[in-house]
Amino acid sequence: MFYLKLITNVLLSLQILYLPVVVYFIGSPSTSVSLSLSVFIVLLIVIQVIFGNIQPRVSKLILLYIFLIFLFSLIILTSYYNSNMDLLNSGKLNGYIINIILPLTIIFFMSLFKVFSYSVFPKASFLLGILAIIANFHFIFTQQFTLSSRIFFIEDNPISTGRIFGMHFLIGMYLWRLSNKKIYILFIILLDLFFVFMSGSRQVLVAMVITSIITLFLNNYFQLTYKKIINHFLSLIFLSFIFLMTFKLFRSTFLYTRLNNVGFESLGRNQLIENSIKLTFTDIKTFFFGIGFGSYYSKSLDGFFYPHNLLLEIQVEIGLIGLMTFMLIFFVVARYIKKSLLLNKNVLSFYSIIFLYSLIISMFSFNINGNSHVFIFGFLILHEYIQNRRLSNV
Protein backbone atom coordinates (compact mmCIF):
# COMPACT_ATOMS: atom_id res chain seq x y z
CA MET A 1 0.00 0.00 0.00
CA PHE A 2 2.96 2.33 0.66
CA TYR A 3 4.04 2.22 -2.99
CA LEU A 4 0.51 2.85 -4.22
CA LYS A 5 0.33 5.88 -1.93
CA LEU A 6 3.70 7.06 -3.21
CA ILE A 7 2.65 6.70 -6.87
CA THR A 8 -0.64 8.51 -6.18
CA ASN A 9 1.16 11.50 -4.66
CA VAL A 10 3.69 11.60 -7.51
CA LEU A 11 0.89 11.62 -10.10
CA LEU A 12 -0.92 14.36 -8.16
CA SER A 13 2.23 16.48 -8.12
CA LEU A 14 2.54 16.04 -11.88
CA GLN A 15 -1.07 17.08 -12.36
CA ILE A 16 -1.21 20.20 -10.20
CA LEU A 17 2.39 21.44 -10.42
CA TYR A 18 4.04 20.11 -13.58
CA LEU A 19 1.22 19.42 -16.02
CA PRO A 20 2.74 21.75 -18.69
CA VAL A 21 6.02 19.79 -18.46
CA VAL A 22 4.20 16.49 -19.03
CA VAL A 23 2.39 18.09 -21.99
CA TYR A 24 5.75 19.20 -23.42
CA PHE A 25 7.13 15.66 -23.35
CA ILE A 26 3.97 13.87 -24.49
CA GLY A 27 2.70 16.44 -26.98
CA SER A 28 -0.99 15.86 -26.20
CA PRO A 29 -3.42 18.66 -25.26
CA SER A 30 -3.26 19.68 -21.60
CA THR A 31 -6.96 18.85 -21.04
CA SER A 32 -6.45 15.26 -22.23
CA VAL A 33 -3.32 14.83 -20.10
CA SER A 34 -5.03 16.29 -17.01
CA LEU A 35 -8.08 14.05 -17.39
CA SER A 36 -5.89 10.97 -17.97
CA LEU A 37 -3.85 11.68 -14.83
CA SER A 38 -7.09 12.24 -12.90
CA VAL A 39 -8.44 8.84 -14.00
CA PHE A 40 -5.25 7.07 -12.87
CA ILE A 41 -5.26 8.89 -9.53
CA VAL A 42 -8.92 8.06 -8.90
CA LEU A 43 -8.32 4.38 -9.70
CA LEU A 44 -5.39 4.29 -7.26
CA ILE A 45 -7.51 5.94 -4.56
CA VAL A 46 -10.30 3.38 -5.08
CA ILE A 47 -7.83 0.47 -4.84
CA GLN A 48 -6.34 1.83 -1.59
CA VAL A 49 -9.77 2.44 -0.10
CA ILE A 50 -10.97 -1.08 -0.96
CA PHE A 51 -7.89 -2.92 0.32
CA GLY A 52 -6.80 -0.50 3.02
CA ASN A 53 -9.90 -0.62 5.22
CA ILE A 54 -9.64 3.16 5.72
CA GLN A 55 -12.20 4.99 7.83
CA PRO A 56 -12.99 8.39 6.28
CA ARG A 57 -12.84 11.39 8.55
CA VAL A 58 -13.63 15.02 7.69
CA SER A 59 -13.46 18.12 9.88
CA LYS A 60 -15.78 21.13 10.08
CA LEU A 61 -12.96 23.36 8.85
CA ILE A 62 -12.62 21.37 5.62
CA LEU A 63 -16.38 21.41 5.16
CA LEU A 64 -16.32 25.20 5.61
CA TYR A 65 -13.66 25.55 2.91
CA ILE A 66 -15.54 23.23 0.54
CA PHE A 67 -18.71 25.25 1.15
CA LEU A 68 -16.91 28.53 0.36
CA ILE A 69 -15.47 27.05 -2.86
CA PHE A 70 -18.95 25.76 -3.75
CA LEU A 71 -20.43 29.22 -3.10
CA PHE A 72 -17.70 30.90 -5.17
CA SER A 73 -18.26 28.41 -8.01
CA LEU A 74 -22.01 28.98 -7.85
CA ILE A 75 -21.43 32.73 -8.24
CA ILE A 76 -19.20 32.03 -11.25
CA LEU A 77 -21.80 29.72 -12.79
CA THR A 78 -24.57 32.28 -12.28
CA SER A 79 -22.37 34.98 -13.80
CA TYR A 80 -21.63 32.76 -16.79
CA TYR A 81 -25.30 32.05 -17.48
CA ASN A 82 -26.09 35.76 -17.21
CA SER A 83 -23.42 36.56 -19.81
CA ASN A 84 -23.47 35.83 -23.55
CA MET A 85 -22.27 32.24 -22.98
CA ASP A 86 -20.19 32.34 -26.16
CA LEU A 87 -17.37 29.94 -27.05
CA LEU A 88 -14.74 32.02 -25.23
CA ASN A 89 -16.77 32.13 -22.02
CA SER A 90 -17.52 28.39 -22.11
CA GLY A 91 -13.81 27.66 -22.64
CA LYS A 92 -12.95 29.61 -19.51
CA LEU A 93 -15.67 27.84 -17.53
CA ASN A 94 -14.38 24.44 -18.69
CA GLY A 95 -10.88 25.53 -17.69
CA TYR A 96 -12.14 26.47 -14.22
CA ILE A 97 -13.66 23.02 -13.79
CA ILE A 98 -10.57 21.15 -15.03
CA ASN A 99 -7.90 23.33 -13.38
CA ILE A 100 -9.55 24.05 -10.03
CA ILE A 101 -12.64 21.97 -9.26
CA LEU A 102 -11.28 18.63 -10.53
CA PRO A 103 -7.93 18.78 -8.62
CA LEU A 104 -9.67 20.05 -5.48
CA THR A 105 -12.15 17.16 -5.64
CA ILE A 106 -9.34 14.63 -6.05
CA ILE A 107 -7.31 16.14 -3.19
CA PHE A 108 -10.39 16.18 -0.99
CA PHE A 109 -10.92 12.43 -1.44
CA MET A 110 -7.19 11.75 -1.06
CA SER A 111 -7.22 13.59 2.26
CA LEU A 112 -10.52 12.04 3.30
CA PHE A 113 -9.17 8.51 2.85
CA LYS A 114 -5.65 9.35 4.13
CA VAL A 115 -4.02 8.77 0.74
CA PHE A 116 -2.39 12.20 0.58
CA SER A 117 1.08 12.27 2.18
CA TYR A 118 2.30 15.59 3.61
CA SER A 119 5.83 14.24 3.95
CA VAL A 120 6.11 12.70 0.46
CA PHE A 121 4.50 15.47 -1.59
CA PRO A 122 7.18 18.23 -1.07
CA LYS A 123 10.08 15.86 -1.87
CA ALA A 124 8.24 14.44 -4.88
CA SER A 125 7.49 17.97 -6.07
CA PHE A 126 11.18 18.93 -5.91
CA LEU A 127 12.41 15.79 -7.67
CA LEU A 128 9.75 16.02 -10.37
CA GLY A 129 10.76 19.64 -10.95
CA ILE A 130 14.01 18.30 -12.39
CA LEU A 131 11.88 17.17 -15.35
CA ALA A 132 11.26 20.87 -16.06
CA ILE A 133 15.03 21.49 -16.03
CA ILE A 134 15.59 18.56 -18.45
CA ALA A 135 12.78 19.83 -20.70
CA ASN A 136 14.30 23.30 -20.69
CA PHE A 137 17.73 22.00 -21.69
CA HIS A 138 16.06 19.99 -24.46
CA PHE A 139 14.33 23.16 -25.66
CA ILE A 140 17.60 25.14 -25.58
CA PHE A 141 19.61 22.54 -27.48
CA THR A 142 16.95 21.91 -30.13
CA GLN A 143 16.25 25.58 -30.87
CA GLN A 144 18.38 28.38 -32.30
CA PHE A 145 18.91 29.82 -28.87
CA THR A 146 21.17 32.46 -27.29
CA LEU A 147 21.41 33.88 -23.77
CA SER A 148 19.64 37.02 -24.97
CA SER A 149 16.60 34.96 -26.06
CA ARG A 150 13.62 34.11 -23.87
CA ILE A 151 12.90 30.51 -22.93
CA PHE A 152 9.32 29.44 -23.59
CA PHE A 153 9.19 25.65 -23.75
CA ILE A 154 5.96 25.63 -21.69
CA GLU A 155 2.92 26.53 -23.82
CA ASP A 156 5.16 28.83 -25.93
CA ASN A 157 4.88 31.25 -23.01
CA PRO A 158 7.98 32.63 -21.22
CA ILE A 159 5.91 33.62 -18.17
CA SER A 160 4.56 30.07 -17.75
CA THR A 161 8.12 28.79 -17.95
CA GLY A 162 9.39 31.33 -15.44
CA ARG A 163 6.59 30.55 -13.00
CA ILE A 164 7.49 26.85 -12.95
CA PHE A 165 11.15 27.59 -12.16
CA GLY A 166 10.25 30.26 -9.60
CA MET A 167 8.07 27.76 -7.75
CA HIS A 168 10.74 25.06 -7.96
CA PHE A 169 13.30 27.53 -6.56
CA LEU A 170 11.11 28.11 -3.49
CA ILE A 171 10.52 24.37 -3.02
CA GLY A 172 14.29 23.90 -3.10
CA MET A 173 14.82 26.72 -0.58
CA TYR A 174 12.31 25.05 1.76
CA LEU A 175 13.98 21.63 1.50
CA TRP A 176 17.51 23.11 1.65
CA ARG A 177 17.14 24.03 5.30
CA LEU A 178 15.84 20.53 6.15
CA SER A 179 18.16 18.39 4.02
CA ASN A 180 21.69 17.09 4.46
CA LYS A 181 22.28 17.29 0.68
CA LYS A 182 22.60 21.08 0.67
CA ILE A 183 25.16 21.34 -2.16
CA TYR A 184 22.97 19.26 -4.50
CA ILE A 185 19.88 21.36 -3.73
CA LEU A 186 21.85 24.63 -3.99
CA PHE A 187 23.04 23.66 -7.49
CA ILE A 188 19.45 22.93 -8.57
CA ILE A 189 18.01 26.19 -7.21
CA LEU A 190 20.79 28.19 -8.87
CA LEU A 191 19.74 26.58 -12.16
CA ASP A 192 16.13 27.54 -11.36
CA LEU A 193 17.18 31.13 -10.74
CA PHE A 194 19.17 31.26 -13.97
CA PHE A 195 16.17 29.95 -15.94
CA VAL A 196 13.90 32.56 -14.32
CA PHE A 197 16.28 35.20 -15.67
CA MET A 198 16.23 33.54 -19.09
CA SER A 199 12.42 33.60 -19.09
CA GLY A 200 12.53 37.39 -18.77
CA SER A 201 9.57 37.32 -16.39
CA ARG A 202 9.74 40.27 -14.00
CA GLN A 203 6.65 39.26 -12.04
CA VAL A 204 8.16 35.86 -11.24
CA LEU A 205 11.30 37.53 -9.88
CA VAL A 206 9.19 39.92 -7.76
CA ALA A 207 7.05 37.06 -6.40
CA MET A 208 10.15 35.00 -5.55
CA VAL A 209 11.81 37.88 -3.67
CA ILE A 210 8.66 38.85 -1.73
CA THR A 211 7.86 35.23 -0.83
CA SER A 212 11.45 34.62 0.30
CA ILE A 213 11.43 37.73 2.51
CA ILE A 214 8.05 36.83 4.05
CA THR A 215 9.26 33.27 4.69
CA LEU A 216 12.43 34.48 6.41
CA PHE A 217 10.41 36.93 8.50
CA LEU A 218 7.68 34.49 9.57
CA ASN A 219 9.99 31.61 10.44
CA ASN A 220 10.43 31.79 14.23
CA TYR A 221 8.50 35.08 14.28
CA PHE A 222 6.79 34.24 17.57
CA GLN A 223 10.05 33.34 19.31
CA LEU A 224 12.48 35.99 18.06
CA THR A 225 15.80 36.42 19.86
CA TYR A 226 18.79 38.56 18.97
CA LYS A 227 20.57 35.46 17.67
CA LYS A 228 17.63 34.53 15.43
CA ILE A 229 17.33 38.11 14.17
CA ILE A 230 21.03 38.05 13.21
CA ASN A 231 20.57 34.64 11.52
CA HIS A 232 17.59 35.96 9.54
CA PHE A 233 19.56 39.05 8.56
CA LEU A 234 22.49 36.93 7.38
CA SER A 235 20.10 34.61 5.49
CA LEU A 236 18.59 37.63 3.75
CA ILE A 237 22.05 38.87 2.79
CA PHE A 238 22.95 35.41 1.46
CA LEU A 239 19.73 35.25 -0.56
CA SER A 240 20.37 38.74 -1.94
CA PHE A 241 23.91 37.70 -2.82
CA ILE A 242 22.61 34.72 -4.83
CA PHE A 243 20.20 36.97 -6.75
CA LEU A 244 22.83 39.64 -7.43
CA MET A 245 25.51 37.15 -8.50
CA THR A 246 23.10 35.48 -10.91
CA PHE A 247 22.05 38.90 -12.17
CA LYS A 248 25.66 40.02 -12.74
CA LEU A 249 27.01 36.75 -14.13
CA PHE A 250 24.37 36.57 -16.84
CA ARG A 251 24.25 40.16 -18.08
CA SER A 252 23.30 39.05 -21.56
CA THR A 253 20.04 37.43 -20.45
CA PHE A 254 16.77 38.93 -21.70
CA LEU A 255 15.66 39.88 -18.18
CA TYR A 256 18.85 41.83 -17.48
CA THR A 257 18.39 43.86 -20.68
CA ARG A 258 14.70 44.35 -20.00
CA LEU A 259 15.22 45.61 -16.45
CA ASN A 260 17.98 47.97 -17.60
CA ASN A 261 15.74 49.43 -20.28
CA VAL A 262 12.31 49.66 -18.64
CA GLY A 263 12.76 48.48 -15.04
CA PHE A 264 9.52 47.20 -13.55
CA GLU A 265 7.30 49.68 -15.39
CA SER A 266 4.55 48.15 -17.49
CA LEU A 267 2.32 50.45 -19.53
CA GLY A 268 0.22 47.49 -20.68
CA ARG A 269 -0.57 46.46 -17.10
CA ASN A 270 -1.46 50.07 -16.20
CA GLN A 271 -3.90 50.17 -19.09
CA LEU A 272 -5.50 46.90 -17.91
CA ILE A 273 -6.02 48.34 -14.44
CA GLU A 274 -7.66 51.49 -15.86
CA ASN A 275 -9.95 49.48 -18.14
CA SER A 276 -10.92 47.11 -15.32
CA ILE A 277 -11.86 50.01 -13.05
CA LYS A 278 -13.92 51.63 -15.81
CA LEU A 279 -15.79 48.37 -16.45
CA THR A 280 -16.37 47.81 -12.73
CA PHE A 281 -18.08 51.17 -12.30
CA THR A 282 -20.17 50.97 -15.46
CA ASP A 283 -23.33 50.74 -13.34
CA ILE A 284 -24.56 49.41 -9.97
CA LYS A 285 -25.43 45.98 -11.35
CA THR A 286 -21.99 45.53 -12.90
CA PHE A 287 -20.32 46.66 -9.66
CA PHE A 288 -22.10 43.99 -7.60
CA PHE A 289 -22.49 41.16 -10.15
CA GLY A 290 -19.80 41.83 -12.77
CA ILE A 291 -19.84 41.85 -16.56
CA GLY A 292 -20.03 38.05 -16.80
CA PHE A 293 -17.49 35.28 -16.29
CA GLY A 294 -15.14 35.21 -19.27
CA SER A 295 -16.54 38.43 -20.77
CA TYR A 296 -13.55 40.71 -20.23
CA TYR A 297 -12.22 40.32 -23.80
CA SER A 298 -15.53 41.20 -25.45
CA LYS A 299 -16.32 44.12 -23.10
CA SER A 300 -12.94 45.79 -22.55
CA LEU A 301 -11.89 46.14 -26.23
CA ASP A 302 -8.24 46.46 -25.16
CA GLY A 303 -7.15 43.25 -26.91
CA PHE A 304 -6.51 41.33 -23.66
CA PHE A 305 -8.44 38.28 -22.47
CA TYR A 306 -8.19 39.13 -18.74
CA PRO A 307 -6.82 41.91 -16.48
CA HIS A 308 -3.69 39.95 -15.40
CA ASN A 309 -4.68 40.49 -11.78
CA LEU A 310 -6.76 37.92 -9.92
CA LEU A 311 -8.56 40.40 -7.67
CA LEU A 312 -9.39 42.74 -10.56
CA GLU A 313 -10.53 39.81 -12.68
CA ILE A 314 -12.91 38.57 -9.99
CA GLN A 315 -14.26 42.07 -9.35
CA VAL A 316 -14.80 43.00 -12.98
CA GLU A 317 -16.21 39.65 -14.18
CA ILE A 318 -18.27 38.36 -11.23
CA GLY A 319 -18.59 41.53 -9.17
CA LEU A 320 -18.22 42.55 -5.56
CA ILE A 321 -20.19 39.54 -4.33
CA GLY A 322 -17.59 37.24 -5.91
CA LEU A 323 -14.67 39.31 -4.61
CA MET A 324 -16.04 39.26 -1.05
CA THR A 325 -16.42 35.47 -1.23
CA PHE A 326 -12.84 35.10 -2.45
CA MET A 327 -11.56 37.42 0.30
CA LEU A 328 -13.43 35.29 2.85
CA ILE A 329 -11.61 32.21 1.48
CA PHE A 330 -8.31 34.10 1.75
CA PHE A 331 -8.88 35.22 5.35
CA VAL A 332 -9.78 31.69 6.44
CA VAL A 333 -6.53 30.40 4.91
CA ALA A 334 -4.47 33.31 6.32
CA ARG A 335 -5.79 32.62 9.81
CA TYR A 336 -4.67 29.01 9.67
CA ILE A 337 -1.29 29.91 8.20
CA LYS A 338 -0.74 31.81 11.45
CA LYS A 339 -2.04 28.90 13.54
CA SER A 340 0.13 26.45 11.61
CA LEU A 341 3.19 28.58 12.41
CA LEU A 342 2.63 27.97 16.10
CA LEU A 343 1.86 24.30 15.61
CA ASN A 344 4.82 23.67 13.25
CA LYS A 345 7.40 25.01 15.72
CA ASN A 346 7.27 28.43 14.02
CA VAL A 347 8.33 27.16 10.59
CA LEU A 348 6.31 28.24 7.58
CA SER A 349 5.07 25.07 5.89
CA PHE A 350 5.79 24.03 2.33
CA TYR A 351 2.12 24.50 1.45
CA SER A 352 2.01 28.02 2.92
CA ILE A 353 5.10 29.04 0.91
CA ILE A 354 3.61 27.86 -2.40
CA PHE A 355 0.29 29.51 -1.51
CA LEU A 356 1.99 32.87 -0.84
CA TYR A 357 4.03 32.65 -4.05
CA SER A 358 0.93 31.77 -6.07
CA LEU A 359 -1.12 34.56 -4.48
CA ILE A 360 1.57 37.20 -5.08
CA ILE A 361 2.16 36.20 -8.69
CA SER A 362 -1.60 36.10 -9.35
CA MET A 363 -1.55 39.89 -8.92
CA PHE A 364 0.61 40.21 -12.07
CA SER A 365 -0.26 37.50 -14.56
CA PHE A 366 -2.69 34.89 -15.88
CA ASN A 367 -6.39 34.45 -15.26
CA ILE A 368 -8.16 32.56 -12.48
CA ASN A 369 -7.58 29.18 -14.16
CA GLY A 370 -3.85 29.82 -14.44
CA ASN A 371 -3.77 30.74 -10.75
CA SER A 372 -5.40 27.53 -9.52
CA HIS A 373 -2.66 26.95 -6.92
CA VAL A 374 -4.18 29.71 -4.76
CA PHE A 375 -7.29 27.57 -4.24
CA ILE A 376 -5.55 24.16 -4.18
CA PHE A 377 -2.86 25.06 -1.66
CA GLY A 378 -5.36 26.96 0.44
CA PHE A 379 -7.13 23.64 0.98
CA LEU A 380 -3.85 21.81 1.71
CA ILE A 381 -2.88 24.40 4.33
CA LEU A 382 -6.12 23.79 6.24
CA HIS A 383 -5.90 20.03 6.01
CA GLU A 384 -2.24 19.97 7.06
CA TYR A 385 -3.14 22.05 10.12
CA ILE A 386 -5.87 19.57 11.06
CA GLN A 387 -3.47 16.63 10.64
CA ASN A 388 -0.76 18.26 12.75
CA ARG A 389 -3.24 19.20 15.45
CA ARG A 390 -4.49 15.62 15.66
CA LEU A 391 -0.91 14.34 15.91
CA SER A 392 -0.05 16.85 18.64
CA ASN A 393 -3.08 15.70 20.66
CA VAL A 394 -2.12 12.01 20.47
Q: Tell me the major beta sheet.
A: none
Order of helices and strands: HHHHHHHHHHHHHHHHH
Morphology call: globular
Uncertain regions spanning at least 5 consecutive residues: none
Q: What structural class do the secondary elements suggest?
A: mainly alpha
Radius of gyration from the alpha-carbon trace, in angstroms = 21 Å
Fraction of residues in helix: over 70%
Mean pLDDT: 83
Could you walk me through the main structural features you see in this protein, from its secondary elements to its overall organization?
With 394 residues, this protein is mainly α. The chain contains 17 helices and no strands. The chain starts with a helix and ends with a helix. The mean pLDDT is 83.
Task: Write a brief structural summary.
This protein is mostly helical and 394 residues long. Helix content is 75%, strand content 0%.
Q: Secondary structure elements and their pairing?
A:
Blueprint: H1 2-16, H2 19-26, H3 30-52, H4 60-82, H5 87-112, H6 120-142, H7 158-176, H8 182-199, H9 202-218, H10 226-249, H11 254-262, H12 267-280, H13 284-289, H14 296-300, H15 310-343, H16 350-361, H17 373-393
Helix pairs in contact: 1-3, 1-6, 3-5, 4-15, 4-17, 5-17, 6-7, 7-8, 7-9, 7-16, 8-10, 9-10, 9-16, 12-15, 15-17, 16-17
